[in-house]
Structure formats: structure tokens, C-alpha cells
Amino acid sequence: MPFSIIFTKTLHLGVSIACEGQAALAGGATAAATWWSSPSWAHTKAAASAETVEVEPEAKEAIEVVEDGEVKTQDAAADDEKDIRPDFEALVLRVQQEICDAISGLDGHKFRVDEWERPNNRGIGKSCVLQDGNVFEKAGVNVSVVKGPLPPAAVSQMRSRGKPLREGAKPNFYAAGISLVIHPHNPMAPTVHLNYRFFQVEDPETKEKSWWFGGGADLTPSYLFEEDAVEFHSALKAACDKHDPTYFDRFKKWCDEYFYIKHRKESRGIGGIFFDDLDERPANSVSRKDLTDREAIMAFSKDCLESFVPTYISIMKRRKDMPFTPEQKEWQQLRRGRYVEFNLVLDRGTKFGLSTPDNARIESILVSLPLTARWEYMHEPEEGTEEAKIMDVVRNPRDWAVDLKELEDASFQEIMAELARRSEAEAEAAK
Fold first, then answer.
1. How far apart are the first and last CA of the chain?
2. Is the distance from CB of 372 to CB of 333 less than 8 angstroms?
3. CB of 209 within 8 A of CB of 84?
4. Could you tell me the domains of the chain?
5. Is residue 221 within 8 Å of residue 390, measured between CB atoms?
6. Residue 55: how many other CB atoms lie within 10 Å
């Protein structure tokens, strides 16, 4: 029986809060500094378009808490770098609204908005979910800003990853981010996942801080259209190359490794980029004295985020109305079964959330799951079929991104438009 859920993810501390299960969570700020900055949250929310969303009655209290200013921001703690938390929160809220506007505009249905607040003044979030739409079976676009004591298991995991947390420390964390998973109805249209986050921990005794960014985006088609793969990967490469020429190859490989389903010996999809623990400024901004390290990495995250709407909407416009057979729909459900397997068995963010007993938002943790999925015993597509074609790709990852040197003087928006034009031309030629 199909099931559905609304949600906003919260923690994926070990690898960077909220990696997948739709963790609208991200990276960090500190304990001594303000936990989150409600002014930027409230200002961005007020500026968001009211046309795309419908606020449920149960969300009103959380909205009023923010608007009434009960969640107050303390003065930012003195630090060597500018406190970027207000700017990052404003960024993810703005992009969340832009994504919801674009998806709703394509689908014709509005998102349900669920604004929530964690007990004891430990966080706020905004989950936007559209399900059973005209184009999309389910779309969840979530933002979280949370803080609190770091669980001992997370402390051990971070220490094993090289984080400078002293033995016996009981650090506090701050995390903020945006996460989405979108499942279309049409099996010719791909599922997509995105997550960008900022995380920070502080030792309350020594006041020593650690911070980093994480994130990425990946595409999961049931049927392979090479022009879609090229456009998606090339857009991410353009965002990476703008900041550091080493980023794309590193993060693409990381993505292929992270989304590998070991027990199936195949990847979840055709990849994209994935990164974590990013705390060193990009190579192209080393000489920028006007940017702190945090601002430089946030600028990279911003470009990655802003590549999403033009790229995915371009792909969806080509695929959403394509004809398909009942057999092709069944194949989509089988591939979605793999999506569920990865998210529930392997994804570190989902496992962390499910192992956190206090105040866990199960709806948020599981929002990435599709409404429908299918499993068949010993199913293997016939050789030479379109189904076998996508299986070859998920078992043998490819390099899809194209060289865009001839566009090196173009603006980022112009590059996105050119990639969409090329993909459309390829699709027309393939008809």
C-alpha cells in the first residue's frame, strides 16, 4: 500500500547533518554565539511569495513564534571570521521558495507548508511537501536550523573523522541547511536529490570551534536520456569550476562512492556531486581578501544551489509529458525500490535520525521516500532493452560533464541557458 509523509530532516551529524532522508539540515554555528538568527529567518519568510504555498493550521503557532520575535538572536560571539549564519539561513530559505515556486508552477498544485519548532528553543524548520500532483508523485523541499548538545555517538564519529574534539568534551552544535527529494509520476522523468548544509560545533569550556560545509546533488533516472545526464552534470561542473578546478572530479567521484548500494553492486542513480567536511577556501578565491573562508565556501554552495532550478526544470519540461506503458511504470517502481533500500539501509543521515530517540521528527527523516515502490524476486531486464541500458550505467558509472571552456567568459546564468539549449537540441535530434 502506498505511503506518504511530510518532513524536514534534522540530523546527520557524522557525515554532516542531514545527508539524505531529506535532511533539511546543514552545517553549523556555535554554542556561545546565537543559535540561529530569527531576524533573517523572519525577513526571508515574509518576503517569500504567498502564491505557492498553503499554511496548515498546525503550522501557525511556529510562524507566530518567529514573527513575534520570541526566538531572539544574541550578539554573535567574537570570532576570527564573520558570522555567516544569518546569510546562510537567508540563502536556503530564499532558494527553498524559488524551488517551490518552480515545481508548483510546473505541476499546478501548491505545496503544503509545515513550520515547526523544536522544544527548549533548540531549532526551527520549514517543510514544504507536494504529493499526488499532476506531474510529481511527491516533492519535499525542507529547511532546518537546529542546535543543542552533540550526542556522544556523534562526538566519537566526528573525532574519528579528524575533528579536533577533546576527550570528554560535551560540545554544542548548530546546523542549518536545505534538502530536497523529488519523485515525478512519469517514469521517463528522473528523481532528484539535493542537500546543502553548514555545521559548527563548539567546546563550551575551551570555546574552540570547528565548522564545515557539506552538500551535493544527484540524479536518479529510471530510463537513460544521455542529454539529461550531460546537462545535469555539466551544470554542476560549471558551478564547481567557477570556484575550484579540482572540485568537480573530486566531488563526482565522492558522489559515485557514497550512493553505491553495496548489497546490489550498483549505484542508486547516475550521480552528480557530493562533498563534506569542506573548510578550506576554494582555489579561485585564495587571493580574495574581501571574503573570509566561510564566505568563499558559502559562495560555492550558493552557485550549486542556484544551478538546480534551471537544470531540473529544463529536464522535466522534456520528460513530464512523454508517453509510457504500464510495464515502464513497473520498472520505475522497481528502481524506486532501490532508492528506498539505499535510504533506509545505507544513508548515514537516515540512520542517525532513526537512532536519535529524543525529539526525532520521523516525518522529516522519512520524507525522501517515494509514495510507491516495488520489489520482485530475482528481476533482471533482458539484454538490449532500455531497462538494461540504465542498469549498465548504474553498475559502471560514467563521466557525463562536457568541457565548457568556450563559455568561460559567460555569466553563470548564460551557461545554464546554453546547457539547456544544447540538451533540447539533442532531444529533438533523437526523436
1. 37
2. yes
3. no
4. 38-430 (3.40.1500.10)
5. yes
6. 15
Residue 349 C-alpha cell reads as 543521515
Please identify which of the residues 12, 109, 185, 193 carries the catalytic annotation. Answer: 193
**Distance set, CA 53 to CA 98, 229, 424 (Å):** 12, 30, 30
- Is 261 buried (19+), middle (13-18) or exposed (0-12) by CB count in 10 A? middle
> Positive or negative CA dihedral for 351, 353, 357, 360?
negative
**3-state DSSP assignment of residue 203:** coil
Q: Give the sheet arrangement for strand 136-149, strand by strand.
A: 53-55, 111-117, 123-131, 136-149, 172-184, 191-202, 209-220, 271-278
DSSP code for 84: -
C-alpha–C-alpha distance, residues 360 and 125, integer Å: 13
> Could you confirm whether 43 is annotated as catalytic?
no
The model's pLDDT over 350-376, given as tens digits with 9 standing for 90+, comes to 876 776 656 567 887 888 999 999 999
User: What is the DSSP-derived secondary structure letter of residue 75?
Assistant: P
Cell 498544485 identifies what position? 109
Which tens digit of pLDDT belongs to each residue from 197-243?
999 887 777 777 788 999 999 999 999 999 999 999 999 999 999 99
